[in-house]
Amino acid sequence: MLLQLKNIFKWVNSGGQRLFLLKDINLDVEEGEFISVMGPSGSGKSTLLNVIGMLDNFDEGEYEFLHESVHTLKEKHRANLYKEYIGFVFQSYHLLDELTVKENLEMPLLYKKFKGTERKAMVADMLDRFNIVGKKDLFPTQLSGGQQQLVGVARALIANPKLILADEPTGNLNSSQSEEIMELFKQLNSEGVTIIQVTHSEKNAAYGSRIINLLDGRMIK
Amino acid sequence: MLRNYFKIAWRNLLKNKLSSFINVVGLTLGISACMVILIFVRYESTFDAHHSNVDLTYRVVQHNTLPDQTTYWNTTAYPLAEALRNDFPEIDVVTQISGPVSREFQVTDNFGNIQRFEESQVLFADAEYPRVFDVRWLAGDSNSALSGTNSVVLTAEIAKKFFGLEKDNYNSILGRTLFLQNKDPLTVTGVVASPPGNSDHQYSMLIPYEFYKINNEYFSTNWSGNYQGTTFIVLGDTKIKGSLEKKIAGWKKKYLNPQDDKRISYVLQPLKEIHNETLYGNSPGGYIMPANILYTASAVALFILLIAIINFVNLLTAQSNSRSKEVGMRKVMGGGRFDLIVQFIFENSLVIIGVLLLSVFIVRILLNLLNTNLSIIDLQLELGWSHIGMLLLIGGLTLILAAVYPAFVVSAFRPIQALRNSKRFLGGNGFSLRKSLVTFQFGIVQLFIIAAIVLAIQMDHFRKVDPGFSSDAVVITETPDFEKLEVYRERLLADTGIDKVAFGSTPPMAVDGFQLGTTYRLPEQSQEEAMDAEMKIADIHYLDFYDMELIAGRNFLGNKEAFDEFIVNETLLKSYGWNADEAIGKRIQINEGQATIVGVVRDFNNNSLQYEISPCILLNWTYYQNNAFIKLSDGNYGSLGTIKNVWEQTFSNSIYDYHFLEDSIEKEYMVENLMFRGFGIFSILAISIGCLGLFGLMSFMISKKAKEIGIRKVLGATLFENLSLFTKEYIGLVALAFVIAAPLVYYFMNQWLEGFTYRIELSFWMFLSGGSITLIIAILTCSFQSIKAALANPIYALKEE
Asked: Of the N and C termini of chain B, which has fewer Cβ atoms inside 10 Å?
């Protein structure tokens, strides 16, 4: 078992009323799963993803990640946990415009204190694996959206995470680019990486092994 | 990692060219200005600090307790030095100097031609002088060079000028002879380096004090009067200062007569304090830089630096929005807050260090400009290794405030918020830190502008006050020979461009620190009851020449070797309660003799306008008519040539020199002038830096509000309404800043003005105009950018989302 959410609640107080963002979420994720989270806008998909990614807190419930109780951990330890095991992919890529493709890929490694030679090898490996060696010295703005997201995925993968969280990874892409990214996810999944993606598209959701539907913060069957 | 930080920093700098430019320029201006002011302050506060004995050296100053007041003199009687030397073994060294004065010299050059030179910085110094003050000897023996009588020590500059030396072979001129005032032969016994600029002892030649004593026997043995002799002592230990002063107080009666003993007390003033203490006035050729001016200058320096730092901080934090995505990303990818703080400190420091290096160059340029263009005082400012500490201090302060703070702000962004929507970050409409900082900036700017306005008006007031005499187109020349005065006058008046000529000791107002002092009393009063007065020698044309009004009695009949007539001013009458008519015919005793009052002159400003009018006695003496006053008719400067010709024809063997009275009067306001210029320049600088920041800030605000403008425009807002969206906020801040700054500046300027007898009244419009100027400039700066935004087609602004 990779992670387990038990009775997770998350709310905000608005005008004296409690507005629930997540309501009684129970979710077990095994290693090697490929989960698609679906639901209309505002149903809590991204919030759920952020909670799983430990970027956001929840108000009630229990969360275990690799048998560690996340809800009892201090902020700092939680951060260390997600830094080590989780890679993020965003709808709007969030590549750093001031850095080249190569430098963008290198950045997570810098924070994980890899040595220079190791970093070079890992970046070269990634460039090779994603077929973007020719683009390594370009800046993000010089790439198409699909290519940017490719770099985004490569960056998420470079430090060998156990889990990839993707928040509408194809939301800004056209259909052929989307397909490319989803194929990539599928391939990664077959190589053993656990993936949780948020998506609006039935077609993309079909790539996953399991679909979770959310409505108003609740999981529905 | 550092390479990565460096790359990001550099690429961000290039990406935001406008704000990088503003940051660099603003901070460079601020740091450079701050450096220049502090270098100036340091220069002015370390006068004579280069002497190795500086901490142990004291000047003996004299306090005169008179019935109506106490006066403070920086000079002492000439015999004091010898007496101290003989009677106090606990004093290590005693030296006495006189001057510097102006003298003429005759030199026979290598080709046998006789050359004449006039040197204005001739200092008489005794043999102990080099033991008290550090002198760098290039040739000659420091122990014996000043111990003779007819010898002279030259500075290298003068040695080259007099003897045409081409190389530094100063030894070759030792033993050469030059003639002082065409008669006394002096042998060159040494060559020394010129004293540094920040020394109150400026000299180009040193002549043994013994020589001066022999030629001025009366002065040099007189214990009652002070004739420009200055005494310095070096103590073995500063602790004995107090006990020594007490000892001297009991000892002086050995030499002083009982009245003088009562009147005179000697005080030891540390050498370090001389240049910044106004109480004793400046010595000839020197000037005093009051300590409070230096404090003000330091405060100005700090404020300008703060304005620049605030710009930097405001721009960085405003800009940090555009970095929020990066912060979020870095956190998600494993960067901790600490890593980000390090990154942003590193990044900001990079800019600041670059700015510091740039400032070093700018400071050097500015110092050169200041040295050559500031004609009021002779500055020799230099950027040296000794200023490294100052640079580090300024750099450190800038780093802490401008690099560390924004780094903490930026690194605090929480990742999901930062990634989700950067627009939410600029903060609400509360009174944010940024607004407080901008208010602070505006406050300082207004402080400076109002101060500059008040200073300008006060300076103008000095020029406009009727001093009770006319100083227009008055040329002053020396008169080396009293016997030739009438010849000189007649020859001058032959030129139709010259209106009037008069002779006397000094012009009506004391200029160049020169004033003859005496004491006065009724003949039946004792010496103890005597009061201080200024004494002026005047001829029969003097009153008419300066348009001075006699309110009772008559003018002199003529000058005599034994003077017998006084004309006194109204202020003097007050000490006896006489009215003008009563005074006529009364006899008065002064130090130099007794005479009858024949006239009373309406009060004129015999002191510069910072000070009150003091009792003044004009006497019809033939002596001390040292100066000729020559009035040019209606700006007829062509007659300057005539004056020179006539002068050289009349007083051959002397070197001609002249100056305008108005220039000399202007010099009396040196410190005020300097302050006015300083505040003028620095308020322009402060407002420039402030506006630069405002400009930068506006471009961020506008990018933030572009959408709002677009919506408002679509809904029908006019250009003006859209403009006021930006400006109204700043108008409020300027107004708030004014409310804070106005009372402060009122307090300080009022205090400053209290130092002057002739001062302006502070009025509300001075403050209001300072505030308005700031407001107008702020609005213009805001509008410059916002007009562009307000005119833009709304579709572009709205399309983006």
From this structure: C
